[in-house]
Design brief:
The protein has 392 residues and is an alpha/beta fold. The protein folds into three domains: 1-54 and 222-258 and 335-392, NAD(P)-binding Rossmann-like Domain (Rossmann fold, 3-Layer(aba) Sandwich); 59-101 and 200-211 and 264-322, no CATH class; 116-190, no CATH class. It has twelve helices and 17 strands. It has helices at 12-15, 29-40, 83-91, 117-124, 130-140, 151-158, 160-176, 214-222, 251-254, 339-350, 359-362, 369-391, and strands at residues 21-25, 44-49, 60-62, 69-71, 78-80, 95-97, 103-106, 109-112, 206-210, 227-231, 244-247, 264-275, 283-285, 295-298, 312-322, 331-332, 355-357. The strands form four sheets. A seven-stranded mixed sheet has the order 8-7-13-14-15-12-16. A hairpin with a 6-residue loop joins β3 and β4. α2 packs parallel to α12 and α6 runs antiparallel to α7 (160-176). It is globular and about 70 Å long. Mean pLDDT is 94; it is low at 1-18. It binds uridine-5'-diphosphate (UDP).
Length: 392
């Protein structure tokens, strides 16, 4: 690991005779993006991560038995509409063309996702045109729900009860461990509803997979003389003082959970290796509640440019459960009932002048990778501008 210090050259008065070093907790996209921005602007940082690898939950590594690049913490597909984020990610790695096409296995029949004209025609046994399908779905939708606030209301309002029960209700109860009526509508708004045969899971103009995996991208972002990285180090165990800390760990953990625990979901991945092609697609969802897992991911299909070169394959069955004290948090639940606790922690966070909370866990938000990077860029720019003013 590199141990030198980086002597800042700009903004010159910021350092005024001393070396200003920043601590960044977490070597995922948030931390790496901030470290890079600061380094390119003359501010040195130490990035730590308690795990022994870079990239947080985006970490990828080759499975020694099959050779397949595995998304260790579940499927990550890069998609964005933000120009500067796409430019940034392409600056730090080679992005290969990839379109996420997900299937759903419902009552032993396979359907196209996200819900599109093919799904509607398959599910109802029809051959409707786009216009007919729109009218048909509207006839089933609960048009009396004017301003849907919950996941359930959003689903009933836009697709009606039949499609909701088949594709969303069971999956969501398994994934989140609560009733869809307790979850915000924003979770369902992630998914498109289409009245054509477009089965691209995302609407964004840019989509791709890193040729060498996400960990290589993060390593490249962090590869700068102004950035030191220490892995296997917990923030709680750091003895040094820093001018400022950017913290991407869980917000409630920073405060020793002293107001109570915010709810997160964790995931268990059960791997299985086989010969050849296991399911013929990268992701198949299993919305039925009689099936205990939510989806099966077959990792070689995340890399279509090399998938044919592997004789063997590896799949993960994905199980969701409430995150316990020793588990890795994945999804902030953000139940309506948790809002008050979150606000109390946010108020505490606002009183910490030398800490900025970042990322999915630090801000307790369900962020995609591109939004994480974009927010990190905003945070780094705003912090540097403020630091420059303070040093004048
Ligand atoms: N969802 C669902 N059925 C599906 C896929 C998704 O009900 O077949 C719901 C579920 O609540 C899920 C949310 O939509 O948590 C967002 O899905 P997405 O595929 O974006 O989840 P991620 O890949 O981030 O886990």
């Amino acid at each position: 690991m590199r141990t030198h210090l980086f002597f800042a050259t700009a903004p010159s008065r910021l350092i005024q005779g001393s070396i200003m070093r920043i601590c960044i907790v977490g070597a995922g996209f948030s931390g790496a993006t901030i470290a890079r921005y600061l380094a390119e602007n003359g501010i040195a940082s130490l990035v730590i991560d308690e795990r022994n690898h870079l990239a947080g939950n985006c970490h990828t590594e080759r499975d020694p038995e099959t050779g397949v690049m595995v998304h260790k913490y579940g499927p990550h597909i890069f998609h964005t509409g933000i120009e500067r984020v796409w430019e940034f990610i392409n600056r730090h790695g080679v992005m290969m063309p990839y379109v996420n096409r997900v299937k759903a296995n419902v009552a032993n029949k396979v359907y196209s996702l996200p819900v599109n004209l093919h799904t509607i025609n398959q599910f109802f046994g029809k051959a409707l045109s786009p216009k007919e399908a729109r009218a048909f779905v509207e006839s089933k939708a609960r048009m009396d729900i004017v301003d849907p606030q919950t996941f359930e209301d959003q689903a009933l309002r836009f697709v009606g009860n039949d499609l909701y029960e088949a594709f969303f209700k069971g999956y969501t109860r398994k994934q989140w461990g609560c009733e869809p009526s307790e979850l915000p509508a924003s979770i369902l708004k992630r998914l498109p509803l289409r009245f054509n045969y477009d089965d691209n899971y995302f609407n964004h103009p840019y989509q791709g997979m890193p040729r060498d995996g996400y960990t290589a991208i993060i390593a490249d972002i962090l590869n700068h003389p102004g950035i030191d990285v220490r892995l296997g180090v917990r923030h709680e165990d750091l003895a040094e003082d820093f001018a400022h800390t950017f913290y991407s760990g869980p917000l409630d953990r920073y405060f020793n959970y002293d107001l109570g625990r915010l709810g997160y979901r964790t995931l268990d991945f059960v791997p299985e290796r086989a010969e050849g092609d296991y399911q013929g697609a990268a992701v198949i969802n299993y919305p039925d509640e009689s099936v205990p897992f939510t989806r099966i991911s077959e990792h070689k299909h995340f890399a279509p440019w090399e998938a044919a070169s592997f004789e063997k394959t590896i799949v993960f069955r994905e199980y969701s459960r409430l995150c316990g004290p020793d588990d890795i948090p994945y999804y902030p639940i953000r139940m309506v009932a948790e809002t008050k606790l979150l606000e109390q922690y946010e108020a505490r966070a606002a009183q910490e002048p030398n800490i900025t909370f970042i990322g999915r866990l630090g801000t307790y938000q369900y962020l995609d990778m591109d939004v994480t990077i974009d927010q990190a860029m905003d945070v780094a720019e705003a912090w540097l501008a403020k630091a420059k003013v303070a040093s004048l």
